[in-house]
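tool=predict chain=A
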Amino acid sequence: MYDCWKATSVAPAYFISLITLGVFCALNLFLAILLLPFDGSELVLSNRVHPEGGPIHNTKQPSLLWSKTIATLNWLKIKTPAVFSSSRYEHFCEKCSHILDDKRFDLCLTIVIICSSIALALDDPLRNPKSSTSEVLLVLNYVFTAIFIVEFLVKILSQGPSKYLQDRWNILDFSCVVASILELSNVQGGKTLRVLRAFRVLRPLKMINKFAEVKVVVDALLMSLPSVVDVGVVCALLFLVFSIFGVTYLKGSFFKCIGSLLTEEEMNLITYPKLVGKFTSSELSWLDDGLENCGASEWRAGKLPTSRELCDCMNGDWVETIPQNFNNILNGFALLFEISTTEGWVDVMYAAIDQRGIDAQPVRDNNRLWALYFIVFLMLGAFFILELFVGVIIENFSRLREISGQGIMTEAQRQWAQTQQFISRLTPEVLLRRPEHKLRASCYDFIMNQWFDRFIAAIIVANSIVIGAVSFDNSQDMTVILGMLNLAFSSIFVLEAMLKLIALGRLYFRSKWNRFDFIIVCGLIAGFGLQMIVSDQLLVASISSIVSLSRIFRLVRLVRLVRPLRTPFNTMLAVVPGMCNIGALLLLLFYVYGIIGMQLFGTVEFQGELNEQNNFQTIGQSMLLLLRFSTGENWNGFMYGLIEERRGCNEHPVYDATSPWCRDETDYPNCTEINGCSASSGSVFVYFYSFTIIVSFIILNMFVAVVLQAFEASNEGEILEPKDLEHFVQTWSLFDPDATWFINASEVQSFLSRLKPPLGMAGQGNNNEALNDPCLLEISVNSKKQVNIVNVAHLLAKRIAKEKQGDSFRDLNDDHPVSCRLTRRSSLDGANKTLGDVYMDSSLVILRAVMRFKNNRKRQLDRVDATCNQP
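tool=predict ok
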């Protein structure tokens, strides 16, 4: 990415979108497909559910310290002077409650939080502290702190201390206030001020409480924390076992001797030491320069020196082979955690294979059996135990969805809910009629032929292959051939659009796929037109690239033509809202960690992995670097690069106005190189380990949960198949040719007689019994005596579900999310009757007509009898 960035400024946007769509979305879709068969498996049960299936309510009691804190606050409130319990105080508290409930107050706080977050990003440690920008930021910091203190006081007076501290979001607000006050009270510079400034990153976290979508994700995350902690304990136990084993056999062994002046013979002696009595005179002479350093003068003939002692005697450097080690349990834990992310584990494995013990020079491939240790750990630690995080988060995500739907669903309810979700995506289609005009009729017959779509699909694939065949070293003939093929394919696409326009007329634009094709065709025509007009060859090449890019978008049409592609494509579309919610939380975490990185590591001198491209000097570079770390790209190598010792560094770098920091090539030569010392190992480990755990193990796994949830929702219902609903829509279009979503209630019987089973009664003779089914009699009818397509399909499917599931059928609650969505899709204006009511009214009309007919007939017969009986 950085190499491409040198060539064009749009490279970061390309790679960020590639990671977001390719890694976080598309690749997680594959994982969702693999996990789908295990969904609902009883092999892994939640430890939050009783064996009987009922959810366990949270019975955890508050801690003793917390209870005493609440009791103390309430006691202080009671013992406060009488003025605080007067009517004036109560009136003031009521005013605070009104202010707190005012939407304008909440809007103002949201704006303040956003502005405060922006100010945090601008306040980098390399800025001139006496500049006007720094002075403005300082004033704004005072203003923001004062506003947050006012918010704190308003909430305390409105809710009371005990109720205020019972809300975790209020605790976060209180922490922000305390951190801001502590920072403003420490005006001197140095690391203490930078650490206190880092605590101000709590302010952007207040945004979570202001946006319901992100708050839902955080609630799901918090709901998963108990199970995540359980998985963490299992991981810790596994790490402990492997760490003890590693410390036992590998402690102090990841070292080697290096030296630019050491000859091959000297290195051979260091690698394979021998008894001092067997040293030759030349070998003893090698030790002369370092006698004082290693004490070789006191060695006896029977002593077997170590490689480290020989290295010191020969003025070599005994250094670490890798930054990690197994010198103690904690270091072993850290090493195992890092390689569990599959980052840098090969280097550690090679170091273990080469090592020969404590103070011994490593030899390549000394003991290859150590590879089994790391392979087994990766299989258990990385590929099994840590993947439990995925399962736990997915499980809790599903339970949260079910709880939001009022209770855990049975298997029958789950099937019915999935079928309802399937039906809720139903939309009517316009009935395409064959035109009477001869030319249009011929075009209609041509495009409606089943081989026409297949031909277009083949052309789309061939066009994509031709576009992909373009390479940097193409010959002139190859370029001409590809250009002619692209022109031919583009002409076919234009011809296709013209044929459809002639055949369908205005109905052509009723289809979203036709509108999509038309936009691409217009782009093709415009691109070829510009290529003929523009004379600049560089601009022509850019236009040609855009035209090729627009043609490649036609691959999306294969989703409509190839049925197996519909489910993944629907999943990609359905996953967008959930991805945006989690992406917003992830972006907020990047922002928070980026600001912390700026304050803690922004002044560290460039060395090794820390360079002009990878650093924490600005918020943009910090967030881009964190995006790289979220993919696991050498995050631990960069971490150890921050700890590496810097020679000639400045512990507390001070800005010099006469020679500002060198931050860009334009600043040279009148600038000062940033020469801050290495960061403390404690802050570095806490920063990188916490980021990896939160982002890589938890947040990114929530993407998998969202994709799996969307994949389940995109699957066809288990009660109905896709072809059933396709036939339903096609039959509906015969009665609703303009796709108005409605047909007359009097046409329902004719519709059912044409509709094939299982939804309809076509070919089954008399269908009067089906019309007497209670489900069909519940079909809603509006004031115009019309029925809705979704409502009809829903109740027909309900009839089938009852037949298949029998006594196990249970309908969903009205407030279930699926039921609510279905209700919105099938809502009717003025729907105060059902189809049963219409039939009843019609029956009553018929009965009244029959009764009138009988009465009239009886009166006529009576008159005839009376006439006949007259003398």
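Confidence is low (pLDDT under 50) at residues 33-66, 79-85, 405-409. Residues 212-250 form the longest helix (39 residues).
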